[in-house]
Amino acid sequence: MLIALAVLLLLSVSRSASAASFRFQIGDCSDDVMRVELRLSDLGYLSGVVNGRWEQSDSDALAVFADTNQVAIDQAADLLFSVDAKPASAVSSVFASGPQQGFLVTYGTLMPWDEVQTKLEVGKSYIVTSCYSGIALHMVCVSVDSHAKMQPELDWDNATLRGFFGAASSSEKQPVVITVDGILIAASVQQAAPSMENQPLPEYAMYFYGCLTGVNEIPDAEHEAIVKIAANQGS
Predict the structure, then answer these.
(1) Is 50 helix (H, G, I), strand (E, B) or coil?
(2) Distance between CA 127 and CA 135 in Å, rounded?
């Protein structure tokens, strides 16, 4: 009986420690921080360095875990260390539609446009993969100038690509990777203009690191930011 009570007491203390560990302040360092970081990393919510120091990326990962598991952060302590905790991969399909924000399923190399430009071939089909959902499709390179223009290879590819975007606005951009010579290269794809939506296979703008706009021949800040996200270098 005494042994059983001791075990229950230890479990109670462990739960209390877990709950307390969620009240970290940015900059806190402890074994409890390390424990929570390791668990978030194991579940796929934390891609950063596990160092026992509570940082904003750790806080953000915990918030996503709580949201994914539909619990408040101050109620997530027991769940985080239980077998019922949902890993990030279990909900990756959520990122297949709607405005894309979340963890990257895949990411690529931040390759300068002048180098990418020498590798792309007009008329050749390439595999393009969403960084958020991991869904892949085929696109054909139409032109290579200040940036690339690509066209879905088949109607199925076009329908899949449209699913990457959550809004009807042609200004929306999404992080993707394109496979070129076996290398995953970070890119930003922009939704086709409304005037082209009724075409069977519209052209999409594909920007890489260092690409220029077709109007003023200057870098596009939004595309540059999306490309960095696709390279897992987003702020």
Answers:
(1) coil
(2) 10
SS3 (DSSP) at 175: strand
Query: Is the CATH number of domain 2-86 1.10.101?
Result: yes
The three-state secondary structure class of 29 is strand
The closest alpha carbon to 164, from 131, 141, 139, belongs to: 131
Q: Where are the beta strands (DSSP E) in the chain?
A: 125-130, 136-144, 148-152, 173-180, 183-190, 204-207
Q: Are 170 and 194 in contact (CB under 8 A)?
A: yes
Distance of alpha carbon 118 from alpha carbon 206, whole angstroms: 15
Closest C-alpha to 187, from 124, 217, 144: 144
- Three-class secondary structure of residue 159 per DSSP: helix
Q: Which one-letter DSSP state was computed for residue 168? A: S
Q: Which CATH number is associated with domain 113-230? A: 2.40.10
Q: How far apart are CA 77 and CA 222, in angstroms?
A: 37
Instruction: Provide the residue ranges of all domains of the chain, joining segments of one domain with +.
Output: 2-86, 113-230
Cβ(9)–Cβ(35) below 8 Å: no
Whether the pLDDT of residue 92 is over 80: the answer is: no
Q: Write out pLDDT tens, residues 18-69.
A: 334 467 888 888 888 888 888 887 777 776 677 888 887 788 788 888 878 8
Q: Coil, strand, or helix at residue 138?
A: strand
Tokens 């696109």 belong to residue = 139
Q: Residue 118 has what pLDDT? A: 94
Name the strand (E) or helix (H) holding 51: none
